[in-house]
Structure formats: structure tokens, C-alpha cells
Amino acid sequence: MLQINPKKFKNIENKSIPSPLRPKFRNKADTNIYFLSKRKFQSEKKQLLIKNIKFVTITVILIVGGYFLSN
Q1: Of residues 65 and 40, more confidently modeled
Q2: How many whole angstroms separate alpha carbon 4 and alpha carbon 60?
Q3: Whole-number Å distance between alpha carbons of 44 and 47
Q4: Rounded distance, CA 42 to CA 5, Å?
């Protein structure tokens, strides 16, 4: 059977190695620029989607209204 030799183990001296699975919680002022720009992009995308939905809705209402008025 395999024996573990405890003398071969070394303590980790550099404890500042970041763990990628654990997120860092910072103050709002220290937030990364990447996330701020991502949030801005998402809000612009959302506004564009709302604008397109309004345009399509108004166009469909005008076409359907014109159809009923012409008959």
C-alpha cells in the first residue's frame, strides 16, 4: 500500500494566489471598468430592443387599421 511521507509536504508561503472560483467583493468605486462598460452595453441593447418593438407594433397597427378602413 502507498505510504504518505509528511516530511515531503511544504507549506505554501505565497498566500496571495487568487482562487478563480471565489469572487472578489469590492467597493462600488473600485468596480472594474469592464463590468461598467458591459452594463452600459446591456442597457443600450435593451433600449434598442424596446425601440424596435415599438416600431413594429405601430407599423402593424397602421397596416391593420388601413386594411379595416379600406373595406
Answers
A1: 65
A2: 75
A3: 5
A4: 54
Percent helix, strand, coil in the chain, to 5, is 60, 0, 40
Q: What span, in angstroms and rounded, lies between the C-alpha atoms of 52 and 48?
A: 6
CB-based contacts of 18, cutoff 8 Å, min separation 6: 24
pLDDT tens track for 18-58: 555 555 566 655 556 666 666 666 777 888 999 999 999 99
DSSP code at position 16: T
CA distance 38 to 10: 42
Q: Give whole-number Cα distances, 40 to 33, 34, 45, in Å.
A: 11, 10, 9
The number of C-alpha atoms within 13 Å of 55 and in the hemisphere containing its C-beta is 6
